[in-house]
């Protein structure tokens, strides 16, 4: 091999080694810079004591879970994790408890909430009129023998869990990216649940007018019922059991369909999926 060619090969190999080394150094540096953004700032667990009575609840926060629990005394309390830039406003006005997150943070501040404890609203009574909860990122959990007139919950990225709740007028749940899970929930009026990408699961639930819709995810029912049920998925199965027979209309773009024979007198059930199976049975 000619000397010039040998030199060229050696130089090329050296340049490749140097390039790999620089890439490794850059990768480590970038990772360190990014991990510097995802930090866990020091936080303070703060409790707001709410001594005024209220019949309505309006919660609007950006990040972190919200849990409803029973209070051990006669007052309501809100326990939350606050940092230097992430704080909450808690006040009662016009018979409504407002819990809002003060808007003085950046994306880095959102990311710094990793591993902080969930926010908890302790309630001294079981019955309320209108309950509204809106959360940018995180889960909403309501569990424990509550009765509302209307319940409306919305999360951007996270799940919704509701159990043992009765509503005289309406139930609404919307998760853009996450699941909706209801157990032992009833509504005297509308019962609506929508997800963008995530499942909808209902167990022992009932509403007069039930509408369930998911873009990408499955719908699962366990012993549920309603005068009118409308269920649809873009891509995903619809399966489960109803308590009473219905007049059924079912259609799957690509998938198998199995529903009971239609029976008059107990309402209607309209089921559609773009891509997925439909399997509904009656279990009283």
Task: Kindly list the characteristics that best describe this protein.
disordered N terminus; 19-stranded mixed sheet; mainly beta; 284 residues
Descriptive report:
The chain is mainly beta and 284 residues long. 14% of the residues lie in helices and 60% in strands. Among the domains are: 1-37; 167-284, no CATH class. The chain is elongated. The model is unreliable at 2-15 and 20-40 (pLDDT under 50).
Describe what is shown at a glance.
The protein has helices at 3-37, 107-111, and strands spanning 44-50, 56-63, 66-70, 76-82, 88-93, 96-101, 119-123, 127-137, 140-157, 160-177, 180-197, 200-203, 206-216, 219-235, 238-242, 247-254, 257-258, 268-275, 278-282.
End-to-end separation in angstroms reads 87 Å
Low-confidence stretches: 2-15, 20-40
- Mind describing the biggest β-sheet? 19 strands, mixed
Rounded Rg: 26 Å
Structural class: mainly beta
Strand content: over 45%
How many beta-strand elements?
Answer: 19
The pLDDT mean sits at: 86
Helix content: 10-25%
Global shape: elongated
Helix and strand pattern = HEEEEEEHEEEEEEEEEEEEE
| Number of separate helices | 2
SSE blueprint and pairings:
Layout: H1 3-37, E1 44-50, E2 56-63, E3 66-70, E4 76-82, E5 88-93, E6 96-101, H2 107-111, E7 119-123, E8 127-137, E9 140-157, E10 160-177, E11 180-197, E12 200-203, E13 206-216, E14 219-235, E15 238-242, E16 247-254, E17 257-258, E18 268-275, E19 278-282
Parallel strand pairs: 2-6, 2-8, 3-7, 3-9, 8-9, 9-10, 10-11, 11-12, 11-13, 12-14, 13-14, 14-15, 14-18, 15-19, 16-18, 17-19
Antiparallel strand pairs: 1-4, 4-7, 5-6
